[in-house]
Design a protein that fits this description.
By secondary structure, this protein is mainly alpha-helical. The protein has a domain of 89 residues. The chain has seven helices and four strands; from the N terminus they run αββαααββααα. A two-stranded antiparallel sheet has the order 1-2. Strands 3-4 form a two-stranded antiparallel sheet. Strand 3 and strand 4 form a beta hairpin. Helix 1 packs antiparallel against helix 2 and helix 2 packs antiparallel against helix 3. The longest helix has 27 residues. The mean pLDDT is 81.
Length: 199
């Protein structure tokens, strides 16, 4: 029931924030105007949709975090995620309005990923060996484990960006991935991670 409440809070906040974000986009000129045949839409589309997702996600997390519900949170990990997501939403809005070059995006993505990884002490310590039938693990030293985690976050960010040409495609894929990981975290009793994925 508590998972459903967190999900509904995130959904409602994002739902009602979307038209507000669209109005802001029209006012500041953050509009995607189809100029070539690669665009699937035929009319101008307001951008800054990530702002609504940001508000929905963090609104639900904040409600659950401060509301005294039973989900445990590591404050340091939450701070790392919050700082990284603020960097991402910040450069994302700037890009929607003014546009930035790909290499500049990569720098911002790397900074955001590094902030999240180092502040929250998130590492990829073990990697399953490819084509291994016996489940052998490759154990990474601390420095490499941090770098691999940063690389992974940047890679996933760009993978989602690459499929963001069609309305709803990136959001749909992200939702499916989050739901799948949510089920996995429940099976491992990672409650706080499950809440984040469910939102």
């Amino acid at each position: 029931m508590e998972y459903l409440l967190v999900f509904m809070i995130a959904f409602v906040l994002a739902f009602f924030s979307t038209p507000i974000a669209a109005k802001i986009a029209w006012k500041v000129g953050a509009i995607d105007v189809p100029k070539d045949e690669t665009r699937m839409h035929k009319r101008p589309i307001p951008l800054i949709g990530g702002l609504a997702i940001f508000l929905g996600f963090w609104g639900a997390i904040l409600y659950n975090w401060l509301g005294g519900n039973s989900f445990p949170y590591d404050n340091v990990k939450v701070l790392g995620m919050l700082g990284g997501s603020i960097i991402v939403i910040g450069y994302g809005i700037y890009d929607d309005i003014y546009g930035i070059k790909p290499w500049q995006k990569l720098i911002f993505q790397t900074v955001a990923a590094a902030f999240t990884v180092f502040i929250s002490n998130t590492r990829i310590e073990n990697v399953t060996m490819f084509l291994s039938d016996d489940g052998k693990m490759l154990h990474l030293n601390p420095v490499i484990s941090y770098l691999v985690a940063i690389l992974w976050i940047v890679a996933i960010t760009n993978a989602i960006n690459l499929i963001d040409g069609l309305d709803g495609l990136a959001a749909g894929v992200s939702a499916i991935c989050s739901l799948s990981l949510f089920v996995v975290t429940l099976s491992r009793t990672d409650i706080s991670d499950g809440v984040k994925l469910y939102t």
